[in-house]
């Protein structure tokens, strides 16, 4: 019980971070309301507002180098105008279903609030990008301070939200990304609830979704979602937002095609086309390969229009500029920023000589091996492909249209990933690194297809035999699940990582600003060094590090010290080569801060390991 209470106990700063990101989300929803049609899918408002914010920062800050504070005040003016537009409309400013979904997701949201960043890429890429925006109110570029991020040229979509929430809170809100992921999932849950209601009742749902189907949607995107991986969802990674946005794109495209086929008359084609474009713009703003996912969903929709006898292809083609222009615009603006500034850190293709063209079968075999271990996801996506093959002969139902969209997305993205492994990863491509995480990008599409398919089966097989209402089961599961799996979600409570973060912050407060600094994590794989680097970089000139992969012998350590010349160094785990190279005695089972005076090294401060002997053997 004490552990459970601890899992759900935030600090004051974490509460402030949660309040800040919720305030930002409310503002995004209001802006989204202002730029969307009167009759629309209200659950897309937060994403629509996010798209406007992303476009403002990319165009204003990336192309015209406008100070982010000026852009923020311009967005405040847009917010004020959106409030006026909202009050002139008869509909609500913020959807009641959004409140319902967030209420149901509150335990997950609270857990996200209580968590600290703890994953490798959070320290090396996602959070440093946000920190740079907060610190300098601009993108990295020519004549500006060097970025500490490993990928400063990567799209900053999530960093804009962190920038705004940090401005509200007055400090970098590290927990805001995970909380924002839950807000996005709750928005998608409403869309999935709407989809499920249409499948179960046979009536295309418009307007209010209600508590029952919001609960079903929340359960579908969390506990029943085969791609719901806490170490991705509750982090600053862009994979969960990508999954949500791609899922939204699939469902919007499906609604649009149903409307063009006159199977659904609740929304206008123009409104849905604009929604597709605005969500597409948000997707392009967060990850480099998302342009491929956006293109595949568009291609899937075009294929349906070509094969469906009830749809005139020309009607979809007329809407195509509205659907793709927003995404193209933000992509072009970002490319202009990258071309105008010598910012490295994009993911690029290897030279032709390093391509694995002669080992494509090995790479593809590895991809299949990984996919075969993800049964739930693989079964759903293969089912979509099988139904799509049948539907290509003749499209009869909305389910056929959805099958083709999902199948084109899955087959196309699998082919793209195979191409990328062969052309961009070098020798690492042989093991298909991060292949499962890349497939999580299709998690929203998987949930949409599974929810609609199960809903149709429920209506055909279960509803005629039902004698009781089992809606309470969905409510019970969505409330219990976060508490039942909280010990798995709080993966950030890894004692060595907490210790290293605490020690690094203590060092930053101890040594003078601007000194040269190095890290020695000579027995580790680098996961602790990246924490120290993230904390120390804003305070010192971080000149380098050695980890186990460096094979730090006494000679290599001496050479490192001569070439890098650090004034101070952090030693995570003392080793004999370090003692010999520094010519000092280092107490075991302690972390040390050492200082160079001339050619001699002295210990400034030491910290005993909290309850373990070796940080590399502590279970995660």
3D structure, described in words:
It is globular, with a radius of gyration of 26 Å. It starts with a helix and ends in a 12-residue tail after the last strand. A five-stranded mixed beta sheet has the order 2-1-3-4-5, with helices on both faces. The protein is built from 26 helices and five strands. The longest helix has 28 residues, at 313-340. The mean pLDDT is 93. Helix 17 crosses helix 18 (398-424). With 620 residues, it is mainly alpha-helical.
Give the gist of this structure.
The chain is 62% helix and 5% strand. With 620 residues, the protein is mostly helical.
Write the layout of secondary structure elements.
Elements: H1 2-7, H2 12-35, H3 45-63, H4 68-87, H5 96-104, H6 106-114, H7 120-136, H8 157-169, H9 176-201, H10 211-221, H11 230-233, H12 239-260, H13 269-284, H14 290-307, H15 313-340, H16 360-372, H17 375-393, H18 398-424, H19 435-439, H20 443-462, H21 471-484, H22 486-489, H23 495-510, E1 516-521, H24 529-536, E2 541-547, H25 554-564, E3 568-571, H26 576-582, E4 590-597, E5 600-608
Parallel strand pairs: 1-2, 1-3
Antiparallel strand pairs: 3-4, 4-5
Helix pairs in contact: 2-3, 2-4, 2-8, 2-9, 3-13, 3-15, 5-9, 5-10, 6-9, 7-8, 7-24, 9-10, 9-12, 9-20, 10-21, 12-13, 12-14, 12-18, 12-20, 13-15, 14-15, 14-18, 17-18, 17-20, 18-20, 23-24, 25-26
């Amino acid at each position: 019980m004490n552990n459970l209470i601890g899992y759900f106990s935030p600090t004051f700063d974490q509460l402030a971070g949660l309040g800040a990101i919720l305030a930002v989300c409310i503002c995004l929803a209001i802006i989204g309301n202002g730029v969307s049609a009167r009759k629309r899918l209200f659950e897309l408002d937060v994403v629509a507002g996010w798209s406007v914010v992303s476009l403002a920062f990319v165009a204003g800050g990336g192309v015209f180098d406008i100070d982010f504070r000026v852009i923020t005040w311009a967005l405040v003016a847009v917010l004020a105008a959106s409030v006026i537009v909202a009050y002139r409309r008869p509909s609500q400013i913020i959807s009641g279903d959004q409140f319902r979904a967030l209420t149901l997701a509150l335990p997950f949201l609270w857990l996200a609030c209580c968590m600290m960043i703890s994953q490798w890429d959070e320290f090396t890429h996602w959070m440093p990008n946000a920190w740079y925006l907060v610190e300098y109110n601009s993108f990295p570029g020519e004549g500006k301070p060097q970025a500490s991020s490993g990928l400063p040229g990567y799209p900053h979509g999530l960093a804009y939200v962190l920038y705004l929430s940090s401005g509200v809170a007055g400090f970098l809100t590290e927990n805001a990304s995970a909380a924002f992921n839950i807000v996005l999932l709750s928005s998608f849950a409403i869309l999935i609830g709407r989809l499920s209601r249409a499948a179960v009742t046979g009536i295309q749902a418009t307007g209010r979704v209600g508590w029952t189907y919001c609960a079903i949607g929340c359960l579908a995107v969390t506990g029943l979602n085969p791609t719901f991986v806490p170490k991705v969802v509750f982090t600053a990674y862009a994979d969960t937002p990508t999954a949500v946005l791609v899922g939204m794109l699939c469902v919007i495209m499906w609604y649009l095609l149903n409307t063009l086929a006159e199977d659904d008359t609740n929304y206008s084609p123009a409104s849905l086309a604009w929604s597709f474009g605005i969500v597409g713009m948000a997707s392009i703003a967060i990850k480099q390969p998302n342009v491929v996912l956006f293109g595949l969903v568009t291609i899937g929709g075009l294929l349906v229009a070509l094969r469906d006898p009830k749809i005139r292809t020309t009607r979809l083609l007329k809407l195509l500029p509205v659907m793709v222009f927003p995404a193209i615009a933000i992509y072009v603006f970002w490319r202009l920023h990258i071309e105008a500034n010598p910012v490295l850190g994009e993911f690029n293709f290897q030279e032709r000589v390093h391509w694995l063209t002669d080992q494509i079968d090995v790479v593809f075999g590895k991809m299949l091996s990984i996919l075969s271990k993800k049964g739930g996801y693989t079964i759903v996506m293969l089912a979509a492909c099988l139904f799509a093959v049948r539907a290509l002969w003749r499209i009869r139902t909305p389910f056929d249209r959805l099958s083709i969209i999902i199948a084109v997305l899955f087959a196309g993205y699998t082919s793209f990933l195979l191409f990328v492994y062969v052309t961009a990863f070098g020798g690492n491509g042989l093991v298909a690194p991060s292949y499962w995480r890349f497939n999580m990008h299709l998690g929203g599409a998987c949930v949409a297809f599974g929810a609609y398919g199960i809903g149709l089966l429920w209506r055909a097989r279960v509803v005629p035999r039902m004698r009781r209402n089992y809606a309470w089961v969905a409510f019970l599961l969505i409330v219990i699940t976060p508490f039942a799996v909280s010990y798995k979600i709080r993966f950030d409570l890894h004692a060595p990582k907490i210790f290293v973060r605490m020690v690094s912050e203590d060092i930053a407060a101890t040594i003078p600003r601007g000194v040269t600094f190095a890290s020695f994590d000579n027995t580790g794989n680098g996961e602790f060094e990246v924490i120290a680097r993230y904390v120390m970089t804003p305070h010192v000139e971080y000149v380098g590090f050695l980890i186990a992969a460096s094979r730090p012998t006494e000679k290599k350590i001496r050479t490192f010290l001569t070439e890098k010349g650090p004034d101070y160094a952090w030693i995570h785990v003392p080793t004999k080569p370090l003692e010999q190279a520094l010519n000092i005695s280092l107490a075991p089972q302690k972390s040390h801060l050492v200082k160079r005076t001339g050619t001699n090294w002295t210990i400034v401060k030491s910290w005993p390991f909290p309850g373990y002997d070796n940080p590399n053997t502590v279970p995660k």
